[in-house]
Design a protein that fits this description.
Strand content: 15-25%
CATH superfamily of one domain: Dipeptide-binding Protein, Domain 1
CATH class of one domain: Alpha Beta
Number of strands: 27
CATH topology of one domain: Dipeptide-binding Protein, domain 1
Helix content: 25-40%
Distance between the termini: 60 Å
CATH architecture of one domain: Alpha-Beta Complex
Radius of gyration: 25 Å
Number of helices: 21
Length: 611
């Protein structure tokens, strides 16, 4: 079968770039040369490459707003039960943890709510943190060791809808308050990331999230060993979890530098989320602390259409915004745009993928999943949808991390190989209606499925439409269904889909841990293994990896892990995007670190302030 030309697909999708108002002739070629010369972050002033780090010596000033785009409403603002990126962006300004990580290599963990790095026992089973004096929640109540014990109880409460979070803390067997200002975690077995995981848990105010004290008499050990179910506090545990799951999706309180001042005013569905700088934030003038933020308000404008968001940017209504590849290439080089914005270009720490429901009658066979990847012209999409602003990946590990397996042979676009695999798996047009069929459980099943995308994300929609177009000529009926984010997420979490297009964020700073996404235990409701991938060897690798402190051995384990995923193809791994962030020139203090920017550093001089 001849290869479908991507230029035809692009034209069919209606994303042909002819006729767009572009920059002066040759601008993109100049930019391409700059980008092709490095994989590092690039900051562009027009078409000139400029330094990554702020070099001025001015004293930062408070004031003004930072207005950002958000594609959809956060699913919920509960820091433990939410798992979407929108919620994370908001909650990161409200909640704090014992430790914080540096933005420069080697990304050391520094004290935040804790005075510093924990004392760790030789057997790696006990971690003791000393708490900093004078830490307060935004309502003025002090943050104490009791709040940390409470937070860990919430994580371990099996009725709390947080399986994605709970898996990281499963090894914690006991939490003890030592003296008046220390907290000690006792673990069942070593986990090489315990310093990071324990240190980065968002701390909840007990008085706010459990005003009735329902969890007070519940012993932590009973939540760990499950004895709470037969104990005297079963009703308390269940009642707390029900209230916590339901009542705190809009009610939020943390110890961080920003607050949701008035939920009725500042949380408006499909319009905005507004954070206000906490005037009495405890960490503002504490020696050794990083800047907590200088702008008075951080405003997330919710615009569920990316074209409309770009118009808001060019009209001066957004200060910081990720450009789609087409916008970056064709629409962001005019003199007016360059007068108002600089651009930072960097590789995302995450990746895009097509997820196949491994429990689906069609996609339960790995040969079918392999065929679907062979039928996905990833390189053609990188060229024609992403305009070269991406790099294909063969697995879930950050391509710039040492754990990434570079020896995996890519699944290049190959319809003939795909058809052979489908025939081998028993798919043929038995009834000669133009659609492939297979007898499954005594019934002739057509190769017909639906691929879900979230509304407003044009790139994901273009991926799905391109796949649909390429499948139609070989006898596969693929329908694309666009859903509002909240409904889309419900479908994914409920495993109520055939296939879907999504992305995962990742980290350059920290060693990966794939347990949350790939371990069979995470196929539970609301678990992150939404495609229901189950493999006994992968489970064992993920468990052994967590107990291994030798990095070379961990790399060896993860090389095998990636080999299995490569063979099984539970996802079609698409690419690691290279994103361009446009940001207003009125901001000073802008430094681009290897993992990206730290927006808390940014400030606006008095004469440049707009709000």
């Amino acid at each position: 079968m001849p290869k479908v030309r991507m230029s035809v697909v692009v034209a069919w999708l209606g994303i042909c770039v002819v006729g767009h108002a572009a920059a002066e002739e040759g601008t993109w070629e100049v930019v391409q040369k700059i980008l092709m010369s490095t994989k590092d972050i690039v900051v562009l002033d027009g078409t000139e490459k400029v330094p990554l780090r702020y070099g001025g010596g001015e004293v930062p000033t408070h004031g003004d707003w930072m207005v950002r785009h958000m594609l959809s409403d956060p699913e919920k603002l509960n820091p433990y039960t939410s798992s979407d990126a929108s919620a994370s962006q908001v909650l990161g300004h409200i909640f704090e943890s014992l430790l914080e990580a540096d933005h420069d290599p080697p990304y050391n963990l520094r004290g935040w709510v804790a005075v510093g790095y924990p004392e760790i026992a030789a057997d790696k089973l006990t971690y003791t943190f000393e708490l900093r004096d004078g830490v307060y929640f935004s309502d003025g109540k002090p943050l104490t060791a009791a709040d940390i014990v409470f937070s860990m109880k919430v994580v371990h409460n099996p009725q709390v809808l947080a399986p994605h979070l709970r898996n990281y803390y499963a090894t914690v067997q006991e939490v003890q308050i030592v003296g008046t200002n220390k907290i000690r975690f006792l673990c069942r077995e070593p986990y090489f990331r315990n310093d990071l995981i324990l240190g980065r848990l968002s701390i909840l105010p007990k008085h706010f999230y459990d005003p009735e004290g329902l969890m007070d008499p519940v012993e932590f050990k009973s939540l760990v060993d499950g004895s709470w179910e037969a104990g005297p506090h079963q009703e308390r545990v269940e009642r707390f979890a029900k209230q916590f799951n339901q009542n705190f999706n809009r009610k939020v309180l943390g110890s961080g530098p920003y607050v949701i001042e008035d939920p009725e005013r500042d949380l408006v569905t499909q319009q905005k989320v507004v954070l206000t700088r906490h005037a009495n934030y405890w960490g503002r003038d504490v020696e050794g602390m990083l800047p907590p933020g200088f702008v008075d308000k951080i405003v997330f404008n919710i615009i569920n259409n990316t074209d409309a968001a770009f118009i808001e940017l060019t009209n001066g209504h957004l200060d910081y915004h990720g450009l789609r590849p087409l916008e970056f290439k064709e629409k962001s080089w005019s003199d007016d745009f360059n007068r108002h914005f600089l651009k930072g270009v960097s590789y995302s720490s995450g990746y895009m993928y097509i997820g196949w429901n491994n429990n689906h009658p069609i996609f339960g066979d790995k040969r079918v999943r392999q065929a679907m990847t062979y039928l996905t012209d990833r390189e053609g999409m990188v060229e024609n949808i992403m305009f070269g602003l991406a790099e294909t990946v063969e697995g879930p590990i950050n391509k710039f991390r040492p754990e990434y397996n570079h020896d995996l042979a890519p699944y290049n676009y190959d319809p003939d190989r795909a058809l052979d695999l489908l025939a081998e798996a028993g798919w043929a047009d038995a009834d000669e209606d133009g659609i492939l069929d297979k007898t499954i459980d005594g019934e002739l099943v057509p190769f017909r499925f639906e691929i879900l995308v979230n509304s407003g994300n044009q790139i994901r929609k273009d991926i799905a439409l391109t796949v649909q177009y390429e499948l139609q000529d070989i006898g596969i009926d693929c329908q694309v269904r666009e859903l509002d984010w909240s409904i889309f997420l419900q479908k994914v979490k409920g495993k109520d889909f055939d296939a879907m297009v999504l992305g995962w964020t990742g980290s350059l700073r920290f060693a990966p841990d794939g347990y949350q996404i790939w371990h069979s235990s995470q196929t539970v409701e609301n678990g992150s293994n939404a495609v229901s991938f189950i493999n006994a060897e992968v489970d064992q690798i993920l468990e052994d990896y967590r107990r291994e402190f030798d990095m070379e051995r961990r790399i060896e384990l993860y090389r095998r892990f990636q080999e299995i995923l490569h063979e099984e193809q539970p996802y079609t791994f698409m690419w690691k995007p290279r994103t361009a962030q446009a940001y207003s020139r009125r901001f000073s203090g802008v430094t681009w670190y290897p993992p990206g920017v730290r927006l808390q550093d940014w400030w606006v001089a008095q004469e440049e302030q707009m709000y």
